[in-house]
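Q: Focus on the chain.
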Amino acid sequence: MTDRALRQVLVLIIATLIGLGCVAVYSTTAIMAHETYGSSLHFVVTHLLAVAIGLGLSLAVLAIPYPLLRGSAKWLLLVSVVLLVLVLVCGLQVGGARRWFRLWHVSIQPSEFAQLALVIYLADFLARKQAVVERFRDGFLPPVLATGITAGLVLLQPDLGTAIVMGAVAMLLLMMAKARWQHVGWLTVLGAVALAVLIGAEGYRRRRMLAFLNPWQDPAGVGFQILQSYVAFANGGLPGVGIGASMQKLFYLPGAHTDFIFAIVAEELGLIGTTAVLALFALFVGCGIRMALGVEDPFNKYLICGCVGLVGLEAIINVAVVTGLLPTKGLPMPLVSYGGTAMVSNLLACALILHASRRRPCGVRSAACGVDS
């Protein structure tokens, strides 16, 4: 398959996931929106607006010259860190978490964009430091510190799920860059210990872990959400109950249109529908890997893998949470769930993949850097 065909397939996959998400969001929220806002279209219109903004910004990203994108890596990360500090000081607090800026009627979550900034920075750093990445001080420590600072600020919000994704993507890129396995091994051990401490230090995280181990112990409390998700899957069976016919969306399943939208897809479209969604994400990752293998420039290769890792890991974690394979985490399903900032961030990640996959390195069949293939 040619590079152009790969990009066309990826765009088709992205469009299909977005279309499925729009249908799922409307089906899940129509009754709730009518009861709350007097219009069944309230949530889906907001969702479509986020898609439109994301697509507009994605077109802008595709037009950015290669040198400008790579040269802005440090500045993007710096701005993201500043925004993460500011949101802790003056951000909107909801449910004990301070993760959003409220501008008029719009909520913006800076951690979503910080993930992308971190990936761009890591791609640039590892591409420049390939020769010394095996050295601890010069090649391994700087990206670990950058990830630790960024993920640490996200943890203070608190948002453990996003911080875990950041750390996992950074680890993926370090292994791609052929960092010493001893360094990666010790970092993995430290990360596992830190995760255990973070879970044990907060009561709500301990309760989530207990609900994960045995949700039936408190079916009306901490185990309620995952048990209602199980009911949705059971109701769906193989063919599903049909689009719009879900019962769990009728105020039974919390977060039905955001973090647990996959459960509603399972109820309405059954095993056939969920398998199709999983297949689309698998194809997304497969196309991304093929694209990364097809580029020669190290920055582009790391950028593609980082962005594919962000979307793929979020999808895997979301599915694992909804099916009870992981403790409950507040991560939406990429390109499908309702959520303005997350949707825009996901579309920007897809745009970066397409941008990197169609750029040649300097000096390869062109005198100009960044000529389309």
Residues 37 and 43 are 9 Å apart (CA to CA). Residues 3-37 form the longest helix (35 residues). The chain has one domain: 3-357. The beta strands are 92-94, 97-103, 106-108.
